[in-house]
Design goal:
Chain lengths: 136, 138
């Protein structure tokens, strides 16, 4: 007898149903989860806050404005944010050439994610256990 | 080495970490060898990795769909959740068990409902949804 696999896709119109189970559609979820992970890093919040408040900013202005951040961490963080389309890096054609960073429209949405996660963490993080993969 | 039995029923992981609540043991944390800070060890000293894993899980399918339905219409019995999110009953059952194990939903006589911590996740999911919309448009 044919047994329906657990992860069979149910083909229904999105107009009729709120959610269509499609186990192959992981790219969107992966991307969102990756951005959530990015927002949880220590230095993402100050970078986003500075760009929101004062952007666009040059690299040196960002580095000076964020106390304690290393060049490597700032550079890596900006690259990661840029890779997800959250920060734009604009080369201004001046002499010398100027590079400015600013939040994209998508990146501006990080502020509310960071704030909401921060508030939840403050209230409920102590109830969460950290269980490494394969342990238990 | 964990002394207690993990409360999660699936192997779902996010960011290499599986997050679990421990409400069924009187909110007593299951101790680990290193006894990490509340919420688990922080990722790069930012938000604890377990919290990030939990948010990543609740913000993505199928957990997101189940969470959203229970949030909007709960308490709901399992079959009602399955009908409204249009996912296979087995998937919904596993997802509800997973969310229950993490303390996001709780089984009540009327069906599944969000816990206090689950309700507080609502604004987080809303913010992530807005982020998702913008990512999709970009």
């Amino acid at each position: 007898m044919y047994q329906q696999p657990l992860y069979d896709c149910i083909a229904m119109s999105l107009n009729q149903r709120e959610y269509v189970f499609d186990p192959t559609a992981t790219a969107d979820g992966d991307k969102v989860a990756a951005v959530v992970e990015l927002t949880s890093r220590k230095w993402t919040r100050p970078i986003v806050e500075h760009l929101l408040a004062d952007g666009p900013l040059r690299y040196s202005e960002l580095a000076e404005g964020i106390d304690g951040i290393s060049d490597k961490v700032l550079s890596d963080s900006l690259q990661d944010l840029e890779a997800y389309g959250l920060v734009s890096r604009d080369v201004i054609d001046t002499r010398p050439v100027k590079v400015e960073y600013s939040l994209t429209e998508t990146g501006a949405a990080l502020e509310s994610v960071i704030e909401a996660v921060g508030e939840w963490t403050e209230l409920y993080a102590e109830r969460v256990d950290d269980v490494p993969v394969g342990d238990g | 080495v964990r002394e207690g039995k993990p409360l999660t029923r699936t192997g779902a992981t996010h960011g290499g970490v599986r997050a679990t609540f421990s409400p069924l043991v009187g909110n007593r944390r299951v101790m680990t060898r290193d006894d990490p800070a509340p919420g688990g060890e922080a990722g790069d000293d930012g938000v604890p990795r377990a919290v990030t894993a939990l948010v990543g899980m609740v913000a993505t399918p199928p957990e997101r769909a189940v969470f959203t339905r229970v949030r909007a219409d709960g308490p709901l019995p399992e079959p009602a959740v399955a009908a409204r999110v249009d996912a296979p009953p087995a998937v919904v059952a596993t997802t509800l068990a997973d969310l229950e194990g993490r303390g996001v939903v709780a089984a009540t006589p009327s069906g599944y409902a969000l816990t206090e911590a689950g309700q507080a996740l609502g604004p987080v999911v809303d913010a992530v949804d807005e982020l998702r919309r913008r990512l999709d448009r970009a």
